């Protein structure tokens, strides 16, 4: 059963702690993305990766870090430098080819709350 | 100017109505566009791709106007279950989302 899996679904973090959100896909997609969504707002791009061992900053990368050591995995670390980390985090993946990306598929998201 | 812009709404329409959303994009070289639907507190799900020739899927029709740099989504015979936020997406190396347009279909 192919798909994209995020874990955990809910996460609570104390201020000042780093936390890593997991994103795994078995769709054999080249490209993977991390978005942040705040209540009533659209999706803002944090980081994206078009290929293994390569990734680019999105619009709001400060306070976040990623790695892409395997094609199927794209974990996101929310560091203590992120001033307002409470949000809904969405991971997505898509096929990449010929300079364009096909439609993306999303995981179910992780709701991070800083307490 | 945002790369992808949508009217956030909300659009409040009665059941059975026809409603249309537009989305403008700034990069004239962009080639791939999509409409996603997002229900409250859920992940976005692909509604339909947008092709230059237009694309129809049941009650939904998507159009691309390259000259004016906008895409549109038309929903005919609105159902209560169509109530959601509709996200316009431009895909060019990365996926760029609009803010979303909220639709509320009333009985």
Sheet with most strands of chain B? 6 strands, mixed
List the uncertain runs of chain B: none
Range of strand content of chain B: over 45%
State mean pLDDT of chain B (0 to 100 scale): 92
Number of contiguous helices of chain B: 0
Q: What would you call the structural class of chain A?
A: mainly beta
What are the low-pLDDT stretches of chain A, counting only 5+ consecutive residues below 50? none
Series of H and E elements of chain A: EEEEEEEEEEE
Largest sheet features of chain A: 7 strands, mixed
* General form of chain B: globular
Q: Compute the number of helices of chain A.
A: 0
Give me the oligomer status.
heterodimer
Summarize the structure in short.
By secondary structure, chain A is mainly β. Chain A is built from no helices and 11 strands.
Write the layout of secondary structure elements.
The complex is a heterodimer of chains A (115) and B (107).
Chain A: E1 4-7, E2 10-13, E3 19-25, E4 31-37, E5 43-51, E6 54-57, E7 64-66, E8 76-78, E9 87-97, E10 100-106, E11 110-114
Parallel strand pairs in A: 2-11
Antiparallel strand pairs in A: 1-3, 3-8, 4-5, 4-9, 5-6, 7-8, 9-10, 9-11
Chain B: E1 4-6, E2 11-14, E3 19-25, E4 32-38, E5 45-50, E6 55-57, E7 60-65, E8 70-75, E9 84-92, E10 94-97, E11 101-106
Parallel strand pairs in B: 2-11
Antiparallel strand pairs in B: 1-3, 3-8, 4-5, 4-9, 6-7, 7-8, 9-10, 9-11
């Amino acid at each position: 059963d192919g798909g994209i899996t995020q874990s955990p679904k809910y996460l609570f973090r104390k201020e000042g702690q780093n936390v890593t959100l997991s994103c795994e896909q078995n769709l054999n997609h080249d490209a993977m993305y991390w978005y942040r969504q705040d209540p009533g707002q659209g999706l803002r791009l944090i980081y994206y990766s078009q290929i293994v061992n390569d990734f680019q900053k999105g619009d709001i990368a400060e306070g976040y870090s990623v790695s892409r050591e395997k094609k199927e995995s794209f974990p996101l670390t929310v560091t203590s430098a992120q001033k307002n980390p409470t949000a809904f985090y969405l991971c997505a993946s898509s096929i990449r080819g010929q300079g364009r990306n096909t439609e993306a598929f999303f995981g179910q998201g992780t709701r991070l709350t800083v307490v | 100017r945002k790369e992808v812009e949508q009217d956030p709404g909300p659009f409040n329409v009665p059941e059975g109505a026809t409603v249309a959303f537009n989305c403008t994009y700034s990069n004239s070289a962009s080639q791939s566009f999509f409409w996603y639907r997002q229900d409250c507190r859920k992940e976005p799900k692909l509604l339909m791709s947008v092709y230059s020739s237009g694309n129809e899927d049941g009650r939904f029709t998507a159009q691309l106007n390259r000259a004016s740099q906008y895409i549109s989504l038309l929903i005919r015979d609105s159902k209560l279950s169509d109530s959601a936020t509709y996200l316009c997406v431009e895909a060019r190396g990365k996926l760029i989302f609009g803010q979303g347009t909220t639709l509320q279909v009333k009985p």
